[in-house]
Amino acid sequence: MSTVIETVDVAVPIHTAYNQWTQFEEFPRFMDGVQEIRQITDTTVHWVIEIAGVHREFDTRITEQRPDERVAWTSVEGPTHAGVVTFHRLDDTHTRVTAQMDIEPEGFLETVGDKAGFIDRQVKGDMKRFREFIESRGTETGEWRGEIDAPQS
Asked: In a 3-state reduction of DSSP, which class is residue 78?
């Protein structure tokens, strides 16, 4: 399993950065290879991706969501992965956004791509495009301020 961590500082208030991140169906606008996302329920999200000619469809479950703090998820089916995006107020108009993902590549090509740093570069590019997307807009496309409690162990 590979762990990828990427951080970007964005020139928007924390609530703007967080609100935009809750708009999963907008992810194809800044995530390379993401063709479509549908939010099925408050906690279930269906993904359609195609990266390097590999087409995948899978569902993820949001396992924790705290406004202006974090969004965490795990895969339900398909590629094994889990992650969390956290939001840290730097000042009234700047936010640090950090994505951490644990990904288990499937098959030979994905394993080779992972070892060659493809996944790391992909996440780094997606976070940079998120920064460009939200800064160019200056405001979020929508928001969801609900909370989802982390599962109790």
From this structure: coil
**Could you tell me the CATH number of the domain that includes residue 129?**
3.30.530.20
pLDDT in tens, the chain (153 residues): 688 999 999 999 999 999 999 999 999 999 998 999 999 999 999 999 887 777 888 999 999 999 999 999 999 977 788 999 999 999 999 999 999 998 876 665 565 555 555 677 888 999 999 999 999 999 999 988 888 887 776
What's the number of domains the chain is made of?
A: 1
CA dist 110 and 54 (Å) reads: 9
Please give the residue range of the domain that contains residue 23.
2-137
Please indicate, yes or no, whether the overall pTM of this predicted structure exceeds 0.70: yes
Sign of the C-alpha dihedral computed for residues 49, 46, 144 and 103 taken in this order: negative
